DNA sequence: GTCTATAAAAAGATAGAC
DNA sequence: GTCTATCTTTTTATAGAC
């Protein structure tokens, strides 16, 4: 890795961490520069404005939370459907618990997006992909005969909401057995009578 | 209402709206003063620092989201249990949809709380009250024979998460039939075999 | 690529007149 | 209570040397 790439990476990673610790608005080039160990104007060589840095990290975050990063429809079969659904949820919960900055940065950008047309569209894409992804999944489950075929729409949205909000609860360190909640949620969409 | 009370109220309401529109960090005394139509130093007569203003609005918001502000355990009977639960959820959804600033300000404070011991305790109280509230409710439902008595804990947390996250989804204007999702969620905790 | 120096604007906050 | 004037600090950002 070239020296300039190293600096670039250091800036991005430091900014990401500081966005989490202090918030995007309160993170300054001075703070980042000091932490990285370079001068403040040096950052302008890589990101010509703070907004550009914010945009860059936003795109990184979006890529990390795409539905396809977690779910592969083909992996779900009649026999493993419930277990696979539980497992994928567990994987997401673990990922979120592992990176303590992740949820906070997401929430930061969620607020930014709610105020800024530039971000909102990209975020809605991700959100929509999740809703449609879950719906396709439940339709497949219904075709396979393992999930109920009524109210697939609302049930899919319910699952998306629960998974999505686990991150929100983690923010406050709420002492919940998130995996148990997910098991419970999955159970409600699985056909009992098989 | 005295003139000073009017100014006080104007400052608080303007700040609340601006916290939503621009975020807490990016809302300045200058902006508030201009909007209210007073000078910047005048605000210091009512709130001796920006932090004090932030604290005040935080407490207002906390009062508005207490579990007891929505749920009254005694109102739930064997006959109306499901309908009452659905109705209370609807009321919360409507309240959130009515005040477009509400969800954003909550999210702002959620992030603040996740970084600040002073806020986190108060917020955890509210959050905890909600979790325990739902649990008590489901226990009552179980005693009345209308809800399942297994996994009451996880089921209660699931309901809390769904209701809580509706606000999050509203932030992005996600086109979801929130009421239908809530109906679906309530249905999953109601005993089918009566 | 990274630095020093510096500009321009705006922040939070106070002093003190009225 | 509300104002004008002002202070201090910090911000984003640029110019230009090395």
Automatic annotation (TrEMBL), chains A, B:
Q: Which UniProt keywords apply?
A: DNA-binding
Instruction: Outline the extent of the HTH tetR-type domain.
Output: 5-65
Q: Which organism is it from?
A: Sporosarcina limicola
The keyword DNA-binding is annotated on this UniProt entry: yes
This one is known as AcrR family transcriptional regulator
Q: Which residues bind DNA?
A: 28-47
Q: Which GO terms describe its molecular function?
A: DNA binding
The record's annotation in InterPro entries points to: Homeodomain-like_sf (IPR009057), HTH-type_Tx_Regulator (IPR050624), HTH_TetR (IPR001647)
Query: What Pfam families would the database entry show?
Result: TetR_N (PF00440)
């Amino acid at each position: 890795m070239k020296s300039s790439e190293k600096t670039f990476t250091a800036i991005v990673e430091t900014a990401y961490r500081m966005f989490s610790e202090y918030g995007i608005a309160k993170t300054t080039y001075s703070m980042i520069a000091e932490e990285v160990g370079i001068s403040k104007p040096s950052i302008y060589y890589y990101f010509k404005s703070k907004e550009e840095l914010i945009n860059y990290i936003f795109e990184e975050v979006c890529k990390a939370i795409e539905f396809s990063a977690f779910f592969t429809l083909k992996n779900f079969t009649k026999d493993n459907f419930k277990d696979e659904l539980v497992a994928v949820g567990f994987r997401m919960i673990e990922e979120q618990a592992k990176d303590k900055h992740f949820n906070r940065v997401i929430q930061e950008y969620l607020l930014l997006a709610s105020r800024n047309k530039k971000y909102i569209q990209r975020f809605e894409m991700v959100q929509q992909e999740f809703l449609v992804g879950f719906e396709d999944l439940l339709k497949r489950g219904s075709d396979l005969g393992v999930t109920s075929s009524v109210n697939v729409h609302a049930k899919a949205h319910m699952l998306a909401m629960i998974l999505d909000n686990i991150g929100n609860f983690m923010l406050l360190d709420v002492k919940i057995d998130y995996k148990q909640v997910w098991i419970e949620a999955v159970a409600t969409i699985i056909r009992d009578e098989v």
